[in-house]
């Protein structure tokens, strides 16, 4: 009798163990917010994820997720087991990380960035990263529009001002964007020394076509704010086009402080250096999910934070 009861208990445990993968996938679906995102993160089909969750619900005899065309939500039964499933998934991840900690990183790191960061900030950081990790390739995608990180297979994105609209992404502030005012050296020689922002506002500026609200600029000096409204005779959505135009024309231009001066001088010279342009704008590193931050993303993020101007 006791032998029969032990066999029954073993079969019961075996059935549970055979569904451990189902439980971890359930936790991943909840944290991802959708079957599609979970499937993309795992590199499997959406139908496979949906089937696995259905098998788990059949096994436990309860519906775990409310499904709609817009979103997923936990049922009472789902809430009851989710935290245990998440802890189990985290423990498994930590175990593999300990084993993989001494192995060389490999694969491809896909980074999305604003054009200015991709051209002036990231090159030395990317070069140092691939030199340190010879088995990793980097795919750098430049553009100023928000893109869906999961849909585009992006591991890490650099964004300015806002981390973007997706609540499923994790954002970490890595630096602040500060502008400095420049003008053509020949123009400044004709104008002489400028004393206040109003002096610069009397002349045309080069502005970003994607930011029409930037026609108003605020300067700070010794605790006093000065707001000026400027006019633009030339606008462009391309940063380098604005810079090159400023080198040849009689315009003022605000340039991010992280752009090295060697790309600007001697054609462009700084103006009103005793003023700050405010406000500063946060620069974010954005990635799909903190719990599953891969070692390659983590290492690149450390380099970015340590070396961002």
* Approximate helicity band: 40-55%
Head-to-tail CA distance between termini: 74 Å
Provide the succession of SSEs.
HHHHEEHEHHEEEEHHEEEEHEEEEH
Unreliable residue stretches: none
Q: Give the tally of β-strands.
A: 15
The shape is: elongated
User: Could you tell me the strand content as a percent range?
Assistant: 25-35%
Number of domains: 3
By CATH reckoning, the class of the largest domain would read Alpha Beta
Mean pLDDT: 87
Radius of gyration: 27 Å
Structural class: alpha+beta
Biggest pleated-sheet summary: 5 strands, mixed
Strand order within the widest beta sheet:
4-3-5-15-6
Query: According to CATH, what is the topology of the largest domain?
Result: D-Maltodextrin-Binding Protein, domain 2
> Can you name the CATH architecture of the largest domain?
3-Layer(aba) Sandwich
Number of helices: 11
What does this structure look like?
The structure is a single chain. The chain is α+β, with helices and mostly antiparallel strands and 309 residues long. It has three domains: 2-100, Orthogonal Bundle (Arc Repressor Mutant, subunit A), CATH 1.10.10.10; 107-175 and 282-307, 3-Layer(aba) Sandwich (D-Maltodextrin-Binding Protein, domain 2), CATH 3.40.190; 179-279, D-Maltodextrin-Binding Protein, domain 2, CATH 3.40.190.290. Helix content is 42%, strand content 26%. The protein has helices spanning 2-17, 20-32, 35-42, 46-60, 76-100, 115-120, 122-132, 185-191, 197-201, 239-248, 295-307; strands at residues 65-67, 72-74, 107-113, 136-142, 156-160, 170-177, 179-184, 205-208, 216-221, 224-229, 232-236, 252-256, 268-271, 276-278, 281-287. The chain has a five-stranded mixed beta sheet with strand order 4-3-5-15-6. A three-stranded antiparallel beta sheet has the order 12-7-13. A hairpin with a 4-residue loop joins strand 1 and strand 2. Helix 2 (20-32) crosses helix 5 and helix 7 (122-132) crosses helix 11. The termini are far apart.
């Amino acid at each position: 009798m006791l032998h029969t009861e032990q066999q029954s208990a073993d079969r019961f445990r075996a059935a549970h163990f055979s569904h451990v993968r189902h439980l971890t996938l359930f936790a991943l679906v909840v944290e991802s917010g959708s079957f599609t995102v979970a499937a993309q993160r795992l590199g499997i089909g959406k139908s496979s994820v949906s089937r696995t969750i259905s098998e788990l619900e059949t096994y436990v005899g309860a519906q775990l997720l409310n499904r709609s065309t817009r979103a997923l939500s936990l049922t009472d039964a789902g809430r009851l087991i989710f935290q245990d499933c998440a802890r189990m998934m985290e423990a498994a991840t930590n175990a593999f990380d300990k084993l993989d900690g001494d192995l060389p990183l490999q694969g491809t790191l896909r980074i999305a960035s604003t054009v200015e960061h991709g051209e002036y900030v990231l090159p030395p950081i990317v070069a140092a990263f691939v030199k340190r990790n010879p088995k990793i390739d980097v795919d750098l995608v430049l553009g100023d529009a928000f893109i869906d990180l999961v849909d585009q297979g992006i591991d890490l994105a650099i964004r300015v001002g806002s981390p973007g609209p997706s609540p499923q992404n994790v954002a970490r502030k890595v630096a602040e964007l500060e502008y400095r005012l420049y003008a053509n050296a020949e123009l400044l020689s004709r104008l002489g020394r400028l004393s206040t922002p109003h002096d610069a506002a009397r002349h045309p500026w080069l502005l970003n076509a994607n930011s029409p609200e930037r026609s108003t600029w605020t300067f700070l000096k010794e605790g006093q704010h000065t707001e000026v409204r400027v006019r633009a005779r030339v606008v462009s959505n391309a940063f380098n086009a604005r810079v090159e135009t400023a080198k040849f024309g009689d315009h003022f231009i605000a340039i991010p402080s992280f752009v090295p001066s060697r790309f600007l001088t001697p054609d462009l010279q700084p103006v009103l250096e005793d003023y700050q342009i405010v406000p500063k704008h946060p620069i974010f590193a954005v990635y799909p999910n903190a719990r599953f931050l891969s070692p390659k993303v983590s290492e690149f993020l450390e380099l970015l934070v340590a070396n961002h101007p």
